[in-house]
Amino acid sequence: MRKGVADIMSVIEFKHVTKYFNIYQNKSNSIKEQFLNKVLNRNKLEVEQMFVLNDASFKIEKGQTVGIIGENGTGKSTSLKLISNILKANSGEISVQGKISSLLEVGVGFQPDLSGRENIYLYGSILGLSKAEIENQYDEIVEFSELERFMDTPVKNYSSGMYMRLAFAVAINVDPDILLFDEVLSVGDSNFQKKCINKILDFKRRGKTIVYVSHDMSTVSRICDKVIFIKRGGHILEGPTERMIGLYMKLTYSADDAEKEKLNTYIENNKSDEISPDFNIKMHEAKEYINGNREGNKDLEITELYFSDKEGRPRNLYGTEEDIKVNIKFKKNKEVKHAVLIFKIYTEEGWLIVYHTCQQDGILITDIKDTNSVSLIIKNDLFLKSKYYFTVGLYDETCENPYDVREKHYWFYVHESNIEEFGKIKVKCDWQL
Amino acid sequence: MIKDIKNLIDSIHEIYMSKELLINLTTKELKLKYRNSVLGFFWSLLNPIMMMLVYTFAFTFIMPQKQAHFTVFLLAALLPWNFFSAAVQGSTTSIVSNANLIKKVYFPREIIPLSIIFSNFVSFIITLSILFIAMAISHITIGWVVIVYPLILILLLFLAIGLSYFLSALNVLYRDISHFVEIVFMLWMYLTPVIYTYDLVSQRIAALGHKGVYLNMAFLMNPMTLVVESGRDLLLKNKLPPIGYIIALIVIDIILVVLGNKVFRKIEEKFAEEI
Description:
The structure holds 2 protein chains of 2 kinds.
Chain A lengths: L9 E15 L6 H10 L6 E15 L3 E6 L5 H8 L7 E6 L3 E4 L12 H11 L4 H15 L14 H13 L5 E5 L7 H16 L3 E5 L3 H7 L2 E5 L5 E5 H13 L3 H12 L18 H4 L3 E2 L4 E9 L8 E2 L5 E9 L7 E8 L4 E6 L13 E8 L7 E10 L6 E13 L19
Parallel strand pairs in A: 3-7, 3-8, 5-6, 6-7, 12-18
Antiparallel strand pairs in A: 1-2, 1-4, 8-9, 10-18, 11-13, 13-16, 14-15, 14-17, 17-18
Helix pairs in contact in A: 3-4, 3-5, 4-5
Chain B lengths: L1 H16 L1 H15 L8 H21 L7 H23 L1 H4 L1 H6 L6 H27 L11 H25 L3 H15 L6 H11 L3 H10 L1 H14 L6 H26 L2 H4 L1
Helix pairs in contact in B: 1-13, 2-7, 3-4, 3-7, 4-7, 4-8, 4-9, 4-12, 7-8, 8-12, 8-13, 10-11, 12-13
């Protein structure tokens, strides 16, 4: 049904695709207004064209998992909609082979008055499942959603978490050739999110083609084979996952304007090879301490650490009430059974104010593979305005033999926001007069 | 024109491939109509029953009519008219009301207005049972010609479908179309012999002399006149309608559906951006 010839191996192909949106300053949606405007010769329609894709060409092959990243308002969701035929390109050719299931929003088409069971059938058929397929998978869906007891209650009585879980359980049980995800993984508690990611990895193993749009760099680096970066203005660049993520972070968060300019010209001229591969996530490294201040026998080696917000967007500047997420990657050089992760936080004066181990939270790191990711969220209801240095370390389970400890290698900054106080720690007081 | 017919066939094929979704959306419409009410689905029957009682009172005691069994005559036209009005008006706004589906999922977009029309059609068929009960009470015998009645219903259905293709797509671009349609339907009902009989019209036309030809043409150019009169002929007068009516309806339907599909497909490309 889609015109265009694609290679045998490529499942999705964009050839010189351009897509722009018309931004109207004063558009009217009624015949009466348009008629009056014409007759009275007033209100010339002001139109601005916003390009979200500009001469974009790329190929996605069968079985690949491709991430699409970029700042807000670039053509990420638009690309998914172009693949799904929800939007049409202004020029260029798009060819798609295979059955698509697009999860652009979870729970689209849910009817509040119908029961959970009825909505499973309705939503499933909206996503392209046949009645027989839904019946087959009904039990799996209900089990995945953890909502067995609520199948006959109307969905309007569900909490928003239950709503999302049900929608997601149906969506994740669709069995198409191509899956498109648009930032839909941020639902549910961490347990549920883990289930969802495992299901996606399962799709990968079964050879499905996946296109994944997200701001959460840690998931993107975990599941994507390659990444397409869309720059504001519509130019795209394709490359290996780590390199593209590094490029994105440099462009978005770097304070060095000259470097940004250089990168911009690289992208526009599509010279992806010239971009040096050391675009790693080094911006959160404390230059003062990064060379040296490291000990350990390196059986496990910490390769990367960066800070982000709860959703995974990398940054290291926080308000006084914002939670701090730490994303850590480490690799295995020798066989290790268990490990303990510790971290320390120092103020800029050098005072040690936090020394925490995962054992104190009852966690032991087991099942250590060649490369590993760990993340933790520090609930910030304590820190006030200051620069903070961060130490991260991996020890064996006795906590005596270090594998890799990086002292003060990283930093983050908490700014004032709405609390004006000197001192480093917030306290709550009950006054009695 | 040939290309347009080919496009229509492609469209129909696409819809057929998603037929389960169409059935599900139609069922959803029917379920939702009376989901939270006490009487539930009984309302679909209660409506025509109440109409029958009220009109009998009005047109037998208050304003007696010359036409024998006036209530039955009225219902035989009013029920299909109500379906037509509800189906077309409902489908006109359907694309805009389902903006979230249009913007986030792909399926043949015609399924949305079609589900509105089909769900109204099902309700309509159910209300016909009341008409048949009313006919039995009035001792009106049903002749064998009633076998042709389903054909009239199909022609009416496609009339609604053709119009809804135009209107639902245009409503996306010009939101006041739905208001125009509302007003047009109000007037249209009085220009169709629903609450009066065509016999009455013929008498007035005869009184006008040769000028009456234009009035007659005006009535006959209205496809709903053809539908309503054919229905009355088949059900109540036990005679076949003029073959010209049937042919005219078939031609009108084909033109509406083919051109309507063309317009729909053209505007469809912009749906996700305009809603």
